[in-house]
Specification:
The chain is of the alpha+beta class. The protein contains eight helices and four strands; from the N terminus they run βαβαααβααααβ. It is globular. About 4% of the residues have low confidence.
Length: 184
């Protein structure tokens, strides 16, 4: 299983990351993990819920809604690993450990995403939430319907945290980095 984290960074940091050939973690501000679930710090941890949010917002599985694809970039589950040869996986894991950044969004892209989501009310997420459809469509993390009221509450919390996080990014004219962290 993997976790997808968004981190707000200045446009200067974003530019340096885009210009440099090699990743240097000292370029990045420390991640404020204590606020990562609420979106009130410099990072937002969507955990394993990013793909479900994408599905509820776009009614699609996979990358075919460009403005929302930032929610999908970097997502990896156990099925993605099946069938891969050990050497290729080892190389991929080593690259990820050296540089967890899998996507970058400049301030203009962040603003476009914010404007697309600011008109979406939480009630829309609630109305579109159908555990049977999520399960049938194969949307991670799976097990939809086992505790659907808790799952819906988590998704609504993630959605509101995402909106708050993007709003803060736009207000500070920040760029975003999407980072993938592997969990045991």
């Amino acid at each position: 299983m993997s976790a997808y984290l968004l981190q707000r960074v200045s446009t200067n940091v974003h530019r340096r990351l885009m210009e440099d050939d090699e990743f240097d973690e000292t370029m990045l501000p420390p991640i404020e993990w204590e606020n990562a679930e609420s979106g009130e710090g410099n990072a937002l941890d969507l955990g394993e819920w990013n793909e479900a949010l994408h599905f509820l917002l776009s009614d699609t599985v996979g990358e075919d809604q460009p403005i929302l694809d930032f929610l999908l970039v970097g997502y990896l589950d156990d099925e993605d690993l099946a069938g891969e040869d050990e050497e290729a996986l080892t190389e991929w894991f080593e690259e990820l450990a050296a540089c967890p950044i899998v996507s970058t969004l400049g301030a203009v892209e962040v603003e476009r995403i914010h404007h697309a989501l600011e008109k979406v009310a939480p009630e829309i997420i609630q109305e579109r939430y159908d555990p049977a459809e999520l399960e049938e469509s194969g949307v991670p993390p799976g097990g939809w319907g086992e505790d659907s009221s808790e799952d819906l509450a988590i998704l609504l919390d993630c959605f509101l945290a995402l909106k708050k996080f993007l709003n803060m990014a736009v207000e500070s004219k920040a760029a975003l980095l999407g980072m993938l962290f592997l969990e045991d």
